[in-house]
């Protein structure tokens, strides 16, 4: 097994761990938000906002991991495409938030 392959596997394991943690956090926020909304608690909207923010952030981790793997593999074409996707997401978030 080459060193590049080992690094790519490490990046994939890290991405998978982040994805599992993110999915757990999203589901937890949605469940807590539903419970708070049922109790008519004022923090329910804030918890739903956190869940929505996590839903937006999760694809960023996947694309960032792809860019890192492609850079390690020295596949500059796919790395450039990944960076372009990240720039498009950043551009749209900037327009949405500001």
Explain what this protein looks like in three dimensions.
With 98 residues, the chain is mostly helical. The protein has one domain. It has helices at residues 3-38, 44-72, 76-97. The longest helix is centred in the first third of the chain and has 36 residues, at 3-38.
- Helix/strand order: HHH
Strand content: under 5%
User: What is the first-to-last residue Cα distance?
Assistant: 47 Å
| Sheet with most strands | none
Q: What class would the helix/strand composition place it in?
A: mainly alpha
CA radius of gyration = 17 Å
Let me know the number of strands: 0
Number of domains: 1
Range of helix content: over 70%
Total helix count? 3
User: Which ranges are low-confidence, i.e. pLDDT below 50, for 5 or more consecutive residues?
Assistant: none
Per the principal axes of the C-alpha atoms, what is the gross shape? elongated
List the helices and strands and how they pair.
Elements: H1 3-38, H2 44-72, H3 76-97
Summarize the structure.
This protein is mainly α. It has three helices and no strands. It has one domain.
Main attributes of the structure:
elongated, 98 residues, mainly alpha
């Amino acid at each position: 097994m080459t060193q590049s392959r080992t690094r790519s596997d490490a990046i994939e394991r890290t991405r998978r761990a982040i994805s599992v943690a993110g999915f757990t956090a999203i589901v937890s926020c949605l469940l807590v938000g539903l419970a708070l909304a049922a109790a008519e608690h004022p923090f329910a909207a804030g918890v739903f906002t956190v869940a929505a923010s996590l839903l937006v952030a999760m694809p960023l981790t996947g694309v960032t991991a792809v860019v890192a793997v492609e850079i390690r593999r020295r596949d500059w074409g796919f790395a450039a495409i990944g960076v372009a996707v990240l720039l498009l997401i950043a551009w749209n978030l900037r327009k949405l938030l500001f």
